Amino acid sequence: MPFAKPTPTFSFCTKTNIYSLATIAFLCSFSYFLGSWNHGGGGGGGSTTTTTTEFSLRGRCNSTTTTSNDPLSSQLSIDFSTHHAADQGGAATALAETERSYPPCGVEYSEYTPCEGTKRALQFERQRLIYRERHCPAKGELLKCRIPAPYGYKNPPAWPASRDVAWYANVPHKELTVEKAVQNWIIYEGDRFRFPGGGTMFPHGADAYIDDIGELINIRDGSIRTAIDTGCGVASWGAYLLSRNIITMSFAPRDTHEAQVQFALERGVPALIGVMASIRLPYPSRAFDMAHCSRCLIPWGHFFGHGHGADAVYMIEVDRVLRPGGYWVLSGPPINWKNHWRGWERTEEDLRAEQENIENVAKSLCWKKLVEKDGIAVWQKPMNHLSCKANRKIIQNPPFCQAQDPDSAWYTKMETCMTPLPEVSDSEEFAGGELVKWPQRLYMIPPRISSGSIDGVTAEIFRLNSELWKKRMSHYKAVNNQLGHSGRYRNVLDMNAYLGGFAAALVEDPVWVMNVVPVEAKINTLGVIYERGLIGTYQNWCEAMSTYPRTYDFIHADSVFSLYKGRCEMEDILLEMDRILRPEGSVILRDDVDVLVKIKKITDGLNWNSRIVDHEDGPHQREKLLFAVKLYWTAPADAADQEGS
Fold first, then answer.
1. DSSP element (H, E) containing 120
2. Looking at 439-580, which runs of residues are DSSP E strands?
């Protein structure tokens, strides 16, 4: 029941009559215990409620209709709305605001990705795959409806079972089972897909392929924690690296290989829609310990312009995001072309020229080729650029970039210059600072902070932030008991991650967190997040995220709506959250109370069950929390029949 501040209707007398005081005390006590008895269930065995009553959420739902029961019904609701106001005559007047509802979109939008739409993409040039980059709808083109899940949608199996199985109803596409049948990517079996772990270059499975890489470089001692997989397929490489405590950012375009990234996300593996074309990847410099390409069809040695290696922009971009001392692993054409060229249906001359180009570009980037064995080659980026700068007098291309922000990566054009590493004084020194091994890396002071590179963030601020999020996570789990249940959530999004404290507090749970640093944030901290051994991306929340509908089981947003106040419409951000949230997915919003009151009016129209509760430090904080659950609903059965026909 909402609490409203009572209007005073009487005053106490000043007489100190002991009988009056006793009567008042008795009535107050009686009213208190009567209220507690009613609120706790009327003496029928109900427990006394607290301000952090637990959620009760259904973990798996096979229903195909809208869920009508309220999973948050036991949670204390605090009503901050204004119910009465004085008119010009001084009388109290009730204010009734019209709540807007958001109808379902048509079933044809069930896999809608606003910034990677096929029709819009065709308006852009095909050279260098520019048409497959992000091209978002204008404000007047934004949908004001809720994206439906396909009929029969079921929540994915809990991790780690989800790595090997996905429901057909969730991603009803069989194209890859035919296209990649001989490569063991994916198999269709009745009501589900099975992922044997195969790939184009690892028909014996990703596990065996990773073991082969492990014979060439050390992937088990914690020195390699973050990886990037370019052209990931269904992300089996990243899926099987997780058992080695390596977390991989997998990406692939939305192209003729229908739904490959969507399959990855259904499996519970980190992935984004993305392509190497003309703009930088949305990650900071020096982010990844290892980069990987297994027959990813990226023209690494291709020159877009003139000059020896000067315009091999894709390898230059890998160099930007690769950490000093990091590895680039390449398998497939043209590696070991002398033994495989007939099967690749390419000429020896063509493959020889491609490998020579790659070798030349790698040398120009000062990479060292460590090994080439069977179908795998590995290069290593130098620890610093001391000797590389000296060699620029001999090898002038690509030149070092001048006056650029190496961490700027939101619609930032790729450059044909080499990103310089931070200065060092010794040839054995790691540029930017050496990272400790995982898992100690998570709570050690990141080098970007210890070096003073992040304005306003000190080692003490970092330490206090880590402790703060441990405290907040304990509070979250007390309010939403499902957050502490293994298997309830897998794919988690933090919309305003700052230093990654929220993700760090979940590191022992079987989840992964996509840490987003908004491009409008005052401080660019995404590099710090990667130095902690976590992953993330840049994002402008006035635009859609490069992912499929129903990507995340859980979304966390700290002060996102205050950050975007005046920049774009609140409802558009919430509609995007609704698009990327699974049915029965959960949300925690943390913001000013006035902001949350407005948000709740919109979430009610989105068919979310939501409650506003007090800050973990008590009711006197203006910052409050909104806990929400998206109700289960799907497209109707007849729509599925029409789509199939």
1. helix 118-121
2. 491-494, 512-518, 536-539, 552-558
Around Cβ 29, how many Cβ atoms within 10 Å? 10
C-beta neighbour count of 587 within 10 angstroms: 25
Q: Which CB contacts under 8 angstroms, 24+ apart, belong to 131-139?
A: 132/253, 132/254, 132/255, 132/275, 132/277, 133/275, 133/277, 133/278, 133/279, 134/279, 134/411, 134/543, 134/546, 136/543, 136/544, 139/568
Residue 443 DSSP one-character state: T
Give me 171's structure tokens: 């991603």
pLDDT tens for 492-518 read 999 999 999 999 999 999 999 999 999
* DSSP SS3 for 222: coil
Annotate 589-606 with three-state secondary structure: EEEEHHHHHHHHHHHHHC
Q: Return d(Cα 241, Cα 226) in angstroms, integer.
A: 10
- Angle ∠(499,503,509) on CA atoms, nearest 5: 160
Residues in contact with 63: Cβ distance below 8 Å, sequence separation at least 6, in sequence order: 632
pLDDT digits (tens, 9 = 90+) for 542-557: 999 999 999 999 999 9
Task: Name the residue with tokens 């798996």.
Answer: 60
In sequence order, the 6+-apart residues with CB closer than 8 A to the CB of 295 are: 200, 201, 231, 331, 332, 333
pLDDT band at 100 (very low <50, low <70, confident <90, very high): confident
Question: Is residue 153 within 8 Å of 132, Cβ to Cβ?
Answer: no
Angstrom CA distances, 5 to 31, 79, 93, 259, 322, stand at: 17, 10, 16, 53, 57
The one-character DSSP state at 484 is G
- DSSP E strands, 67-167: 84-86, 92-94, 165-167
Please give the distance of CA 120 from its chain centroid, rounded to a whole number.
Answer: 24
Structure tokens at 213: 């890489």
Angstrom distance (rounded) from CA 237 to CA 241: 6
Side-chain-side CA neighbours of 420 within 13 Å: the count stands at 15
DSSP state of 482: G
Tokens matching residue 454: 């992040």
Instruction: Please give the model's pTM, rounded to 2 decimal places.
Output: 0.86
Give a three-class secondary structure readout of 37-86.
Answer: HHHCCCCCCCCCCCCCCCCCCCCCCCCCCCCCCCCCCCCCCCCCCCCEEE
511, 552 Cβ separation under 8 angstroms: no
222: left (phi over 0), alpha (psi -120 to 50) or beta: left
Distances (CA, A) of 235 to 84, 256, 288: 55, 16, 17
Sheet of 552-558: strand order equals 536-539, 512-518, 491-494, 552-558, 581-592, 623-630, 608-613
